[in-house]
Amino acid sequence: MTTDPPRGAAVIGQAGGPTAVINQSLVGVVEGLRAGGLVGRVLGARHGVRGMVDDRFVDLTDTPDAALDRVARTPSAALGSTRDKPDEAYCERIFDRLRAREVRYFFYIGGNDSADTCRIVNEVSNAAGYELRCFHVPKTIDNDLIENDHTPGYPSAARFVAHAFTGDNLDNASLGGVKINIVMGRHAGFLTAASALARRREDDGPHLIYLPERDFDPARFVADVDRVYSKLGRCLVAVSEGIHNAAGEPISALMSGLNECDAHGNVQLSGSGALGDWLANLIRVELTPAGGKPLRVRADTFGYLQRCYPDPSPVDQREARAVGRTAAEVALLGDLDGSVAIRRVRSAPYECRFELERLSAVAGKTRVMPEEFLDGEHGVTPAFLDYARPLVGDLAVVERL
User: Fold this and answer.
1) What is d(CA 164, CA 198) in angstroms, rounded to the nearest whole number?
2) Which residue in 60, 102, 273, 320 is deepest, having the highest Cβ count within 10 Å?
3) Which fold has domain 8-141+312-364?
4) What pLDDT, on a 0 to 100 scale, did the predictor assign at position 264?
5) What angle do helix axes 382-392 and 154-175 make, rounded to 10 degrees?
6) What ranges do the domains of the chain cover?
């Protein structure tokens, strides 16, 4: 449904985990609004919906283009982010604040919970008979938004993971032993799977990749590592933080003994090295021969390092800017609400397009790795590599003697 666009102010917010390109989307929205010429004031909400209810905004209306471009190229959320998950009562407070400032356009940059916030605010404004155009701008390094080929933030984080494993594979090849790296990804294994881009030769790691789309069996894990180590004298392993047992219980939560939940009701998996330490100790205990020298095993947890590393994918930068600009353009053309989605046209040469989906199609839903990307219990297929390569950009060139 489209109508003539109203004149009024616009508010932009950022939510969830920051990324290397989330500010590209922020600036894209500002650029799109400026080009439309219908919005008087453009306001940035400090720390997302929290800033909206606390009436804390920064005026972006007259920010120079050069300054905006520098912000766009800076990682992390320039406006500040939030983990608040608003319910209807919270969204009513947001709406009251926006209406008091004569806001007619609301843009929220974030994941599926941010899409849900847009949906609820939109419903509240409709019930009040007030035209407030609400648009979700996608963002998540987990790449878990449905209706999208991929999401802004993922290509840059995947680039980091590929480079980190490239270096770690060379380290592991030099000294041997077992190395385990824990990568972000609660339900979707896209980011952990990107570690496979580090493979240049047949014996390159990661040799084993464990994703949340498959049940994790500790005994099978030990046998897998033993098989690779016996053959190569080393083993590099990529493990998603969201791996779970056959009952669906997160291994990380079970091993750490932590039951702390975030504002979205999710058991917190990041911020602890417990999973890596537990897996390393499991290998050390099970594979060290009786009376023999302890196996050399180390584990690292990438944690927040993946999110804002200042070496973004060129594709990611362009697309993050474009989804923000697209959201502004469709709002000014007459659309009342929606979520901007990235659709792939082809992989070689790479091309995508941007389409508008209903908020209800994206809000609160989670996308996972499709079966055609999964190879057995601990690997990914060439189809995934073909999917991911165009997104991350050229990777570091390495050579071995």
Assistant:
1) 8
2) 320
3) Rossmann fold (3.40.50)
4) 47
5) 110
6) 8-141+312-364, 155-306+372-392
Q: Are 80 and 46 contacting, i.e. CB atoms less than 8 angstroms apart?
A: yes
Q: Copy the structure tokens of residue 316.
A: 């990611």
Query: Which residues does 396 contact at the CB level (< 8 Å), separation at least 6?
Result: 163, 166
Cis peptide leading into residue 206 (ω within 30°): yes
Q: Which of 113, 142, 144, 204 is catalytic?
A: 142
- Give this prediction's pTM: 0.94
The CATH class, in words, for 155-306+372-392 is: alpha beta
The DSSP-derived string for 209-245 is EE-TTSB--HHHHHHHHHHHHHHHSEEEEEEETT-B-
Give the CB-side neighbour count of residue 262, counting CA atoms within 13 A.
15
**What does the chain come to in residues?**
401
On the 0-12 / 13-18 / 19+ scale of CB atoms within 10 A, 170 is middle
Query: Is there a catalytic annotation at residue 142?
Result: yes
Which amino acid type is present at position 86? P
Task: Tell me the DSSP string of 104-115.
Answer: EEEEEEESHHHH
Q: Give the Cβ contact number of residue 215 at 10 Å.
A: 13
| 302-360 pLDDT, tens digit each | 999 999 999 999 999 999 999 999 999 999 998 889 999 999 999 999 999 999 999 99
Kindly indicate the confidence band of residue 267, based on its pLDDT and cuts at 50, 70 and 90.
Answer: low
Q: How far apart are CA 159 and CA 308, in angstroms?
A: 11
Q: Do domains 8-141+312-364 and 155-306+372-392 have the same CATH topology?
A: yes
* Edge-to-edge order in the sheet of strand 8-14: 57-59, 39-45, 8-14, 103-110, 133-138, 337-347, 350-357
Q: Which residue has the tokens 């390495």?
A: 398
Strands (E), 81-193: 103-110, 133-138, 177-183
